[in-house]
Amino acid sequence: MPDRRRARQRTGTWAALLLTLVLAAVLLTALPDGNREGGRACTGRTVASWSADAALTGEFARYGDDAGRTDDWTGGDGTHSLKLPDGRVLWLFSDTFLGPVHPPPNPSGESYAWRETTAPMVRNSAVVMSGGRLARTLPAPLFPEPAGGQWRWPVAARVEPRSPGSAERVVRVLLWTRAAAPAPWIYGVPLATEVATLSLPDLRVESVTTVFDQRTVPDPSRRVLFGTTLVARDGWSYVFGGDDRQAVSRPVSSAYVARVPDGGLGDPAAWEYWNGSEWVTGTRPAPVLGDGRRTGVGSAFSVVRDGDTYVLFTMAAGAAGLGTVSAYWACSPTGPWHGPTGGFSPPLPSGGVAAYNPQAHPGLGGQGRLVLSYDVNWLETTGAAAAISGNVSLYRPRFVTLRLKPAR
User: Fold this and answer.
1) Are 281 and 269 in contact (CB under 8 A)?
2) Cα distance between residue 302 and residue 295, in whole Å
3) Which of 144, 339, 327, 334 lies closest to 255 in space, CA to CA?
4) CA distances from residue 13 to 16, 24, 288 in whole angstroms, order as listed
């Protein structure tokens, strides 16, 4: 009798162990992409420390103040970068001032380099950096404006195969197409996400393709534009986007994510959108972050990978968002996103100015350092043109260097 009892106990033990293993396998299979990366669970991240990057900020000041040419970049916003295969860095900007910059009228006093109020402005531009020095501005605007009061703002970019499996590589640039409209749409209404293909190494624009058209969405505040940031991983580009709820005086916007296989960014049929439970094509995506109150993103934000963890940087919700960067983290592009954590306030010039569009530049960091830019502009729309013409430093990117640490 004791032997039979021990045998039944051993059988029950092995059955329980087998059931535990099966349940564990099911749970692991059900977890979103990224939770099992490398066989390890990801851990939270927050900002450990930061410091102003005076050298990189100064390089843009040097280049912008150089009066050697009158058709090059002197200031702009919407700062994005892409490291090219030959080591150069392509810098992409949205609204951009060209033309000459004049030295301060009183170099020994409190005065600033300035540009004429009639200086030309284009909706997009690109500047090439080589060996850490800004070298030249490509003919601007780089991406031609559509007719009918529309324009294109470049956002994230990636070097990828010309088509899936191709050995030839090209540059793909995400574009936001917008159109002029009355208040509250002072920055235009969103129309569509496009993808431009540029050849390498000459960076010639070959084509522009619409990949996500939003013109049929009646409420402009519910239209989603993709490409504020992207993260490449395991043969996919995870492309993040947002809506324009801030334009109609709501507190914060929501974040969305799509994915595209390598080589497919320019193919609308290759795009898949997260609908809250799975990746699908041809449907409206569901938000992955943003409750409309405490959590959410600004109109532009940035996502990077730190080890197994995804980290998102955005301007903080509410009044703090005028000058404070906050962070979220997740184990998967689809979330759940945790935060906000790690807020910090980068340096701003005095006066009525605000910071916006925090963007990470992974191609410039290394050794545990992450380079982050933020744009600066005059806070009020009234008098903004005169303010940023009278002080050219008000419309140029500034940079900080971050270090991350595990979140408690």
Assistant:
1) yes
2) 15
3) 334
4) 5, 17, 42
pLDDT digits (tens, 9 = 90+) for 162-215: 999 999 999 999 999 999 999 888 889 999 999 999 999 999 999 999 999 999
Specify the pLDDT at position 248: 56
- pLDDT of 110 reads 66
CB 316 within 8 A of CB 324: yes
Taking the complete model, does pTM exceed 0.85, yes or no? yes
Q: Which of 182, 238, 240, 190 is nearest to 210 (CA)?
A: 190
Please name the residue that has the structure tokens 């009183």: 106
φ and ψ of 68, to 5 deg: -70, -25
CA–CA distances in Å: residue 132 to residues 64, 135, 190, 282: 15, 9, 35, 42
Say whether pLDDT at 135 is over 50. yes
- For 223, how many CA atoms within 13 A lie in the half-sphere containing its CB? 23
**Averaged over 31-36, what is the pLDDT?**
42
Across all residues in the chain, what is the average pLDDT?
87
Contact status, residue 76 vs residue 395, Cβ threshold 8 Å: yes
Give the Cβ contact number of residue 203 at 10 Å. 16
What residues have CB less than 8 Å from 390, skipping those under 6 apart? 112, 114
Give the separation between CA 168 and CA 377, rounded to whole angstroms. Answer: 40
Q: How many CA atoms lie within 13 A of 317 on its CB side?
A: 19
The residue whose two tokens read 């320019």 is: 266
For 31-406, the fitting CATH number among 3.40.50.720, 3.30.420.40, 2.115.10.20, 3.40.640.10 is 2.115.10.20
Domain range list for the chain: 1-30, 31-406
Contacts of 56 (CB under 8 A, 6+ apart): 364, 371, 399
